[in-house]
Amino acid sequence: MHFAMPPRKTSRPPPYAARQSRGFGIPPALRNILRDRSRGLVVLILGFFTLFWLLGGMSGGERSAVKNTIVGSGAPVVIVTTIDPTADLRWVERIKKNREDYAKKHGYATFFPSTADYPLKKSPPSWAKVPALRHAMTLNPTSQFFWYLDSTALIANPSISLQSHILDKSRLEKLMIVNEPVVPPDSVIKTFGNLKGDRIDVIVSQDKEGLCVNSLFVKQGEWAKYFLDAWFDPIYRSYNFQKAEAHALEHIVQWHGTILAKLALVPQDLFNSYVTGPASPKNGQYKDGDLIASFPGCDKEKRDCAEEMEPTLAKLEGKDKD
């Protein structure tokens, strides 16, 4: 069966069609007026968008001035500690001074936001550390490293420089624990080997139960912002993990190779020694000379951080006066 082909449209329409399509019966004088007004309207629209583009370019220049700042030209490390607004004020001031004295000695900066500053909704206050780090990055765009240190920990050896102790890339490569289960003792997901120190953006330690989130380092950059945003995802906060953000971190590290590939696991006593708590049996118990004396969990289970930390804090304050 053959189907009739539709008639082919000519590329040369009859003269009357062309005339009708141009004028639509409108008198020439009126067409000229409309044409002039249309040109004026086009000029007006173009002028508006030009002005908008210029203003946008100016504000974009301001944004790029921040974006293009040289990372590393500011304080090399920002120490971030979130504060419970209901905590004893005298104890809080001593915790802040512990960080401020150390930061002043080494040229670092400090940041002490309240846990109430962030929209946690029904999530535990411990989640505040994640947006606090993100906040600190925004406030300090030229700083390179951000050290989150829980209020349940004390800087016990202020003579230690973080660069030579941990952060220098060649030093970090020597410290990294490779082929280690992410969650002890027998997680099938293990830390990568052959990672380069300058490719690491997150530095953590591990106690005998899992990854530690009471003391960790994050390196400034777009990847770190992605990492913190992923960690703070509402889905993870709604899971009701037993250990809140700690278990959420273990989850994303084990399930997202792109995050594990940027993570360095180092010995616990480098920056997270436990005075009390589930310390790593290998290297987690506090000893004289360690950088950090940590009391994990002292803010929970009807314990009193101020009371537990008092002997160590008083000893450290006494050394400062000597």
TrEMBL record:
Residue numbers spanned by region Disordered: 1-22
Transmembrane segments: 41-60
Keywords attached to this entry: Glycosyltransferase, Membrane, Transferase, Transmembrane, Transmembrane helix
GO cellular component terms, A-Z: mannan polymerase complex
Gene Ontology molecular-function annotations: alpha-1,6-mannosyltransferase activity
Keyword Amino-acid biosynthesis among UniProt keywords: no
InterPro entries recorded: Glyco_trans_34, Nucleotide-diphossugar_trans
Pfam families xrefs: Glyco_transf_34
Gene Ontology BP, a term: protein N-linked glycosylation
Similarity-based family: Belongs to the glycosyltransferase 34 family.
Protein name, entry field: Alpha-1,6-mannosyltransferas-like protein subunit
